[in-house]
Amino acid sequence: MIRSAFCFLLLAPAALAAEAKAPDITQNGIQTAFRVLQKEYIRSGDLTFDELNRAALHGLLERLQFGAELVSRTEDSKLADPGGVQAEMLRPGIALLRPKAFSQAEIAVMEQHLAKFVQDGAKHLILDLRASASPGDFDVAAGMLGLFVPENEVLFKTRQMTDSNTEVLRSEREPLWKASLLVLIDGDTCNVGEAIAAVLRQRKQALLIGSATRGAAVRYETIPVDAHWSLRFARAEVLLPDDSSIFQKGLAPDFPIKLAEKAKRAFFDPENKTRPASTISDTPRVRFNEAALVAGTNPELDSYIRRSAGEPLPEDQPKPRDTVLQRAVDFLITSDHLQAAKINWSQKLPPESPAPKAIPVNE
User: Fold this and answer.
1) Same structural domain for residues 230 and 279?
2) How many domains does the chain have?
3) 27 domain residue, yes or no
C-alpha cells in the first residue's frame, strides 16, 4: 500500500510537467527514491503511512484533473441554486438567452422566451453558456438542444466508462428556433453547456465565441467517503454523433475573445441585477445643448459643482464591459450589413452619356 502511495507522491503534482517531456520513472527508480527518502530525508519521520496515503490521493486527483474531486458533504447537501434564465432583446432583431443553473425547470422557461423572440421577429439569437453551474444531467442538455435541433435527430451519445455500450439521445420535438445562432463559451461552461455547444457546432448550427472550455463533458456521480467528504467522479462521457469525444480536450472557440475574470464575476454575480444590454453600451453623459438653453436649464451644473468640490464623477471610472457579448453583437450587426450590401453582378450598368465638347472662350 505504501509503495503504491509513494508512486503517486512522486508523480504529483510537480513531476507531471516533467513527465510529458521525459520518460516515465521505472518501478525500480520509484522504490530507490522511496528508500532514500525514508532514510536520508531531513524529516523522514513525517513520511507516515497516513501522510503518504493523503499525498497519493492528492496526486491522483491532480492527475485526473476535473475527472474526480472531493466535495464537502455540507456544501453538497445544500439546495441547488434555483438559477433562472436571463432573456433580453439586446438590439432590434438580436436576442440573448442565458440559462444560469442548467436545470430541468429552465427548459420550459427557455421555451417561453424563444417563442416570444420568434413572435417579436428576432433574426439572431445569442445563447450564453458561460454561467458557472454545478455539474448537471445530460437529460437537461438533450431537452435544451431539442429547442434547436429537428425532431428525431441524434443529439449525442453517453458511454459508461466500464461499458462498451452507448446510450443514444435524440431530439424529441420540433425546434422552436431555426434562425441565426451564436454560442458564448469559456472555462466556466459546465458539462451540460459543453455538450450543448459541441452538438450545435458539429451540426454547423452555431458559431462559438469566447474562450476554450475545460473538456468536462462527462456525467458525474457523487458517493460519500466519510462523514465530511464525498467523492465526485466521472462515470460516463459524452460522445458526439460521429463518436468523437471532447473529454479533457474541450472546445476551442471559432472566434477567441478574452474577458477579464474580475469583470465576468461582476456580471454573473447572483446579486448583480445589471441588464446584459447595459454591459455592451454606454449611457452618454447629459450635456448642455440647445434644448437646455431654450428651457433655461443647465444639466451640467451638478457636475461642475461636484467637480469643483473635488468629488469624483461617475464617468471618471469606466464601467466593466462584457467584451465577449459585445463582440458577438458587433459580429451580427456587421453580418447583417454585409448581407444587405450584396452586389448584384448580373445587373448591367446604364450606358455612359458622352462627355460634352469644350467650347472655346474666344469664339
Assistant:
1) no
2) 3
3) yes
In angstroms, the CA 3 to CA 37 distance is 13
Query: What residue numbers bound the domain in which 27 lies?
Result: 2-68
Q: Around 94, how many Cα atoms within 13 Å sit in the side-chain half-sphere? A: 21
Q: 252 near 212, Cβ under 8 Å?
A: yes
Quick check: 239 and 161 in contact, CB under 8 A?
no
Let me know whether 7 and 110 are in one domain: no
In a domain, 353, yes or no: no
Higher pLDDT, 177 or 58: 177
Model confidence pLDDT, tens digit, residues 286-332? 666 777 667 777 666 677 677 777 777 666 666 778 999 999 999 99
Pair 192, 232 in one domain:
yes
What are the CA-CA distances from residue 31 to residues 7, 9, 15, 105, 346 (Å)? 8, 12, 16, 54, 79
Q: Angle 105-119/138-145 helices, nearest 10 degrees? A: 10
Three-class secondary structure of residue 239 per DSSP: strand
360 in any annotated domain = no
Joined grid coordinates for residue 293 = 438653453
Cβ 237 vs Cβ 160: under 8 Å: no
- Bigger pLDDT: 20 or 191? 191
244-301 residue pLDDT tens: 988 889 999 999 999 988 888 888 877 777 788 888 876 666 666 777 667 777 666 6
Q: Rounded to an integer, what distance in angstroms lies between the CA atom of residue 271 and that of residue 139? A: 29
Backbone phi and psi for residue 115, each to the nearest 5 degrees, phi listed first: -60, -40
Same domain, 108 and 178: yes
- The two beta strands, 124-128 and 94-99, are parallel
Specify the pTM: 0.74
Whether residue 202 is found in the same domain as residue 153: yes
Phi and psi at 285, nearest 5°, equal -70, 135
Same domain? 245 vs 227? yes
